[in-house]
Structures are given as structure tokens and as C-alpha cells.
Write a structure and sequence with these properties.
Layout lengths: L7 H12 L5 E4 L6 E6 L3 E7 L4 H17 L7 E2 L8 E3 L2 E7 L3 E3 L7 H21 L14 H15 L6 H23 L8 E4 L8 E4 L4 E3 L6 E4 H13 L10 H12 L6 H16 L5 H7 L2 H32 L4
Antiparallel strand pairs: 1-2, 2-3, 3-6, 4-6, 5-6, 7-9, 8-11, 9-10
Helix pairs in contact: 3-6, 3-7, 4-5, 5-10, 6-8, 7-10, 8-10
């Protein structure tokens, strides 16, 4: 557990108090970016720990989405209620919820056949199709249209100053290079975000890819982790999910244009996008990568390699998309335009 207040003993006592679950063993999920655990009792449970009061909104939204998707016949986890019918508990300002553990294998741990990958695009399209009916009146995420260049510049420069406290090595050099790259791109990004009008927004997972899909022991596909769910451009989630699921451009992996085209087509069979959505897909992804400082601070605080690997992948992605965004856009429009 992350601090002295939330010791294993305190955690076990509170879980028993509020859930009646007597914990025999706690196992940290180390590969996760979030603070997640498996607890073992007579049954197994998945546990996620948040550390900010703002995160309560995320827990409530996740519970709401899981209930709705379950009614729409999607396979999703179920948040377990406490003895008092609450969906989370607060232990020393740690906000915790439990789900019954689903036995199976993460699709991240298998090499998906092309047909299986394409099926994940259909699933995403189905999610957007049903959620679009329910969440039509929510305010759109202004992040995509309001870039505060001065604030971004200051935040990045503060990161550079923070880097000065660390001994120089290849990882620090890459982070330094990535931050300076972002600073150089700010004027271009400010111009870019003026074109993000007229896009299709949907309530979406926010981190959809094969790593958040699980196949249970009966072959059913479960949708996991809606903690990052929000109203985002649908085409951003679509292209991002392909890049993550195929590890495209990660350490030199090749981007497969034809497979991406099939992936997009499969999605469009379930949920329509307009021409502008398709055209701007790679630019949305590039914009999001270059305006996100996600995990920089985390790596510098923990020296955990998984955070650095993520930073390195984002940097590789940004250079690839800068060089190839127009090619991806033109390829998709040439091959899919008659589908929208």
C-alpha cells in the first residue's frame, strides 16, 4: 500500500468492516499504471485505489457506465457494494472500490489474429453506438479546442528544471529531448486545435485497447476499466486503440495501413463517423500525445521502467505521426469515403 496510514493491516480491517471479506492475501498488479490489487479470500477480488477526492467522480461514472452497458448485454465487471450499499469506501483519504475478479486471460497477453483485432474495433463501435444514445447532452471536452500555450510552456519548462536534479543518463536525455520537442511544437499545436470543430463526440472508455479486454474461461470478451471514461472525439479513441493494440511504431514496429483500414471499416459497421472525423484522426492523436505530460513526473518520482517505456513510446509515436499524419488521413479517405 502507498503510505503508512493505508497499511496492509489497516486495509484488511477496513475491508472486513465494510464488506465482510476476510483477506488471506493481497497481490499488487505491478504492470498497471493505476494502484490496483488482487485480494484473496474465499473468492478473488479486483481492487482499485484512488488518492484524490476528485476521483470519486470517476468511480461513480464507472459504476454508472458498467450498469448501463450490462443492461445492453455487454460483458462488464460489477462493482461490489459495501454492507451499507455504497460503491466505494474512504480509508485515510484513499478511495477504494472492489469488483469480483474475472478469471481469464487479458488480450494484451496474446498475439491477436487480424480477425480478432478487427473484432475489437466492432466492439468499440457497438459501445459508442449504445453510449451515444444515453450521453448526448454532456458538455464536450474543451481540451481538444482550447490550448493554453502559455500554461503549457510554463509546465514544460518546470519539468525541464526538475530534470536538472537528476544525474544524466540515456533515459533522462530522452525525456529532455521529448520535452523540448513539445515546446517547439506548441505554436503548431495552437494552430492545429482550431480545426477541431464539427467532430463526433461520444462517451467512451478513454483507454480502449486489447489491454483492457479480457477473455474469460468460457470465451466471453469482457470490457474492463472505465475509470478514464469521458466524452471524447470518437475517432481519437478509434485510432489510439489501433496503435496501442498493435503496438504500431513501438521500438520500430511497422504501421500496417491495410490492417488499419480494415479496423476502421469494422468500427464503421457499428457506428458512423463523418468525413472530418476520419480526416482528422491522426492529427487528433498527435495533438493529444504532444499536449499530455502524462507519466513524466511519475517516472522521475519512482524510476519505474514501465513509465519510461510509455514515455518513449509516445515520443516515437509523435515523430511518426508528424511525418505520416497526412498519409494516414489520405489513405483512409481514399479507401473508406464511400462508407460514410
Amino acid at each position: 500500500m502507498k503510505n503508512d496510514n493505508l497499511s496492509k493491516n489497516n486495509f484488511k480491517k477496513m475491508i472486513f468492516k465494510y464488506y465482510g471479506i476476510k483477506i488471506k492475501k493481497i497481490e499488487k498488479i505491478n504492470h498497471s499504471f493505476s494502484d490496483c490489487y488482487i485480494i484473496f479470500s474465499d473468492n478473488k477480488y479486483f481492487v482499485k485505489v484512488f488518492n484524490n477526492l476528485e476521483d470519486v467522480k470517476r468511480i461513480k461514472r464507472e459504476d454508472e457506465l458498467l450498469k448501463f452497458l450490462r443492461k445492453e448485454d455487454f460483458n462488464v465487471p460489477r462493482i461490489i457494494k459495501t454492507k451499507d450499499e455504497d460503491i466505494y469506501i474512504n480509508i485515510f483519504n484513499h478511495y477504494i472500490f472492489l469488483e469480483k475478479f474475472i478469471e481469464g486471460i487479458s488480450l494484451e497477453d496474446v498475439n491477436l489474429e487480424d480477425s480478432e483485432l478487427i473484432n475489437t474495433a466492432k466492439i468499440l463501435g457497438k459501445i459508442h453506438q449504445v453510449l451515444n444514445k444515453r450521453y448526448v447532452d454532456i458538455n464536450k471536452e474543451v481540451y481538444w479546442q482550447n490550448l493554453n500555450v502559455e500554461k503549457e510552456f510554463n509546465d514544460l519548462n518546470n519539468l525541464l528544471k526538475y530534470l536538472e536534479n537528476f544525474p544524466n543518463n540515456s533515459n533522462i536525455e530522452l525525456i529532455n529531448k521529448a520535452i523540448n520537442h513539445k515546446i517547439r511544437m506548441l505554436p503548431e499545436l495552437k494552430k492545429m486545435n482550431t480545426i477541431f470543430n464539427g467532430l463526433t463526440y461520444v462517451m467512451t472508455n478513454g483507454d480502449y485497447s486489447k489491454r483492457n479486454l479480457l477473455k474469460d474461461n468460457n470465451g466471453n470478451i469482457y470490457l474492463l476499466d472505465f475509470s478514464d471514461a469521458n466524452l471524447y472525439p470518437a475517432s481519437w479513441e478509434l485510432i489510439r486503440s489501433f496503435f496501442i493494440s498493435t503496438e504500431a511504431c513501438k521500438k520500430g514496429n511497422v504501421f500496417n495501413y491495410d490492417l488499419f483500414c480494415k479496423y476502421v471499416r469494422a468500427y464503421l459497421e457499428e457506428f458512423p463517423l463523418n468525413i472530418k472525423d476520419l480526416k482528422l484522426m491522426p492529427y487528433l492523436f498527435l495533438y493529444q500525445i504532444l499536449t499530455s505530460n502524462y507519466r513524466y513526473q511519475k517516472y522521475l518520482e519512482t524510476n519505474d521502467q514501465k513509465y519510461f517505456d510509455f514515455i518513449e513510446w509516445k515520443e516515437n509515436m509523435s515523430y511518426f505521426l508528424e511525418e505520416n499524419a497526412s498519409k494516414i488521413s489520405n489513405f483512409i479517405l481514399a479507401n473508406i469515403e464511400n462508407k460514410v
